[in-house]
Amino acid sequence: MAKQSYYGGQAVMEGVMMRGRQDMAVAVRTPTGEIAVFHQRLEPGDWVRRLRPMPLLRGVFLLWDTMLLGMRALVFSANVGLAEEDDPAATAVPAGPLSGVALWGTVAVSILFSIGLFFVAPLAVVGLLDSHIQSSIVSNLVEGGIRLGILLGYLGALGQLRDIRRVFGYHGAEHKTINAWEAGDPLDVPHVRAHSISHPRCGTGFLLVVVLLSVLVFAFLGRPPFALRILSRIVLVPLIAALAYEFIKWTAAHLSNPVVRALIAPSLALQRLTTREPDDEMLEAAIASFKRVLVAEGTLDAGEFFCSGIVAVDESGRLLQPAVASAPV
Hints:
Strand order of the largest sheet: 1-2-3-4-5-6
Oligomer: single chain
C-alpha cells in the first residue's frame, strides 16, 4: 500500500543526505568501504515553527533550509573522503564543520550565482536583442527560452563529469529508496533497486517548474526599463520559488490524477539528466541514511539499522560508537 510521505533528500559526494520533519542524516561511503553516518535533530526556532506552515512562506523557508542542510551535508561528505584518503586509519576529520557565518555566506554566494546565471544572464542576452523585438510578450518568451536552454545545458554539462556522474548515481539511489518506502516495500537492496530513479518531488523538477513559472510571472510585467527588469528578476525569485513549491506539493498529493501525471511528465523526464542507475554500494548508503532518520523518529528499531560496516560519527567525522552487529542493510 502506498504511503503519504514528507521525506526528501540530496545526493552528496559518495553518499546521501535524507531528512524528515524533525531529523536529518547523512551516510557517506568511505574509501575503506565503511558507511559513516551523521544524524542531527532539526530544531527550528519558535517564529520559524509558526510561520513555516503558511502557504507560500513555507516554500521560501524550506528552500533556504534545504540549501543550508545540503551545504553542510556536502562539506561533511567531502571531509570524510579527504580524511580517509590522507590517513586511512583516521577516525576524525581534521577540519571543523562549516558553520555560522561561513555556512550562511557560502549559501548566499550560491544563491547569488544561481540568480545571476538563470535570471540575470538570460535578461542580459535579451537586452542585446530587444531592439529587434516589437512585442514585450515575445521578449519575455525569448528570455524564458534562453533561461530554459541554460538550465538544460548546465545540467547536461555537469553530467559529463565523472565525479558528478557518481553523485547522480547516489541521486538515483535516494529516489529509489524513498519510492520503495512510499510503496510499502522492505528497505533492502533487492526491493529498493526495483523502483524508479525518478520522483515527483525532486529538486530537478522543482528547477524546471521555477523556470516555467518565471515565464508566466514576468510576462505580466511587460518591458520596463532594463534596470527595473533586472531588479524584478532578483526580487521576485522568492515568490516564484514559493509558487513552485506549492505546485510540487499539490501535484505530489494528486498523483493518481491523469492530468497531474501529464503535468509532471516534463519534470520526470528532466530528472534523467541528474540521475543514474546506482550500484549496490550506492543503494546501501541511501538506505542507511534513510533508516537512520526512521530510527530517530521511532518508526524503525535501532537493531535494524546498526550493522557491520556502518559507523556513527559526529559532524566532524569523529567516531561516536562502534558498529553493532545486526541484520544487514
